[in-house]
Write a structure and sequence with these properties.
single chain; 12-stranded mixed sheet; 55% helix; alpha+beta
């Protein structure tokens, strides 16, 4: 028999036993589906994190009270830290020699902005920011101007709007110079930030920016809230040196003793991505363990069903051998049957896994992906399963004596 005949014979046998074939490949489908689904979802999340962290430039780092990702049970350790306040920020500024831009910020969520008889939904984020914030956060102005040092010093009632606000309140006019109200307080619009789109599935244009000193008047004094500090070092060669400068000066200002750990967190895009990857690595390992158990069970199932198939087709094997089929032809036929079953299960599992994994991409409104590397790994694993668990039944079939096989009832 040539390879084509062996393949067609194997395919015909699978078709004749549809239920058995379905049950055989079901375990493979579940195993491959679980690992491909998880890996696809994680890859989508990693892609989203890397794309959306572009808002914090490569030359920028942030300092804050709490870590961005805290996997331990030590939140109270961070909660008991002193807040990062505006007074310490002002003391820090004159000490910085390497850092080019330094800003402070705080955020208040769920605000309504009103203009005449119109108002937004209660989903606007109001940010209190210091001057130069546009340089540390890659924010460009589309119309008007940004908040200046004079606005900050005077605590001016001025505001820069995002386009989500403008589209609702003043869609057909230039908003610069108009007055809007937040919590009954009037602000003069001095600028409109360029459209930023979405990040992590959330709009970056439903924001409004006011001087941080004005912000403190209505949303808490510096001593009652922990700020985020943001720093930019234009010269990449001095980036690490700039980070160390901030750490050293902040330790002195906050009274951290020599030998004690920092009582603040410092992070960059690279460190945040690295922490995220460490977190997802554990999920990947867990998914691989679960998938391995499912695939092991499916391999045992394949061996069991193939042994039953050999017993049922003993007379057929005897007839084939009496008509000139060689042992290797029988061996190849049963091996190909096992391979077709596992590869079919692998392909179905990959398709379902990719679909389910990319549900995350749809929900986060980001681009879908196809994990080619894991798909190839999945197909390779299926091939190994067929070789490992299908070889013994195939070898047993190939070794049958044709005379004894023909006598088999």
């Amino acid at each position: 028999m040539n390879f084509k005949e062996i393949y067609l014979s194997a395919l015909s046998s699978i078709r004749q036993n549809k239920l058995r074939s379905f049950l055989t490949l079901l375990g493979v489908v579940i195993g491959i589906f679980s690992i491909i689904g998880v890996m696809t979802a994680i890859n989508v999340l990693q892609q989203t994190v890397e794309e959306n962290l572009g808002g914090l430039g490569a030359s920028t780092f942030q300092v804050q009270k709490f870590p961005n990702m805290n996997m331990g049970n030590n939140r109270w350790k961070y909660f008991n830290r002193k807040n990062l306040n505006y007074r310490d920020f002002q003391r820090l500024l004159p000490k910085l020699k390497i850092v080019d831009y330094a800003t402070a910020e705080d955020w208040n969520y769920g605000k309504i902005i009103r203009y005449k008889d119109k108002e937004t939904k209660a989903n606007i984020i109001v940010a209190g920011i210091s001057h130069n914030w546009e340089f540390t956060n890659n924010l460009n102005i589309d119309m008007g101007r940004m908040i200046t040092e004079m606005d900050e010093t005077n605590g001016s009632h001025v505001i820069v709007l995002g386009y989500d606000v403008v589209d609702i309140l003043m869609p057909n006019r230039n908003p610069v110079g108009e007055d809007v109200k937040i919590d009954g307080v009037k602000y003069r619009v001095i600028g409109v930030a360029e459209r930023k789109g979405q990040r992590f599935g959330q709009s970056q244009d439903n924001r409004a920016y006011i001087p941080i000193t004005t912000y403190f008047k209505y949303y808490g004094q510096a001593s009652f809230t922990s700020l985020n500090y943001c720093f930019t070092v234009v010269d990449q060669d001095k980036f690490e040196e700039g980070m160390q400068e901030v750490i050293n000066e902040l330790r002195l200002i906050r009274g951290v003793k020599i030998g004690e750990e920092n009582d603040f967190e410092i992070w960059t895009n690279a460190s945040l991505i690295d922490n995220f990857n460490k977190m997802t690595a554990a999920i990947k390992i867990a998914a691989m363990i679960i998938a391995s158990i499912a695939l092991l069970a499916s391999g045992i199932g394949i061996m069991n069903i193939m042994l039953v198939t050999v017993s049922e087709r003993t007379r057929e094997i005897g007839v084939r051998k009496s008509l000139g089929a060689k042992s290797r032809d029988i061996l190849y036929q049963f091996m190909i049957e096992a391979l077709i079953l596992t590869e079919m299960g692998g392909v179905i599992g990959i398709i379902l896994g990719v679909i389910m994994g990319n549900v995350v991409a749809v929900l986060m409104k980001t681009s879908v992906i196809f994990p080619w590397d894991w798909a190839l790994i999945g197909l390779l694993v299926c091939s190994l399963i067929s070789l490992i668990f299908g070889s013994y039944p195939a070898y047993k079939a190939a070794r049958l004596d044709p005379i004894e096989a023909l006598r088999y009832e």
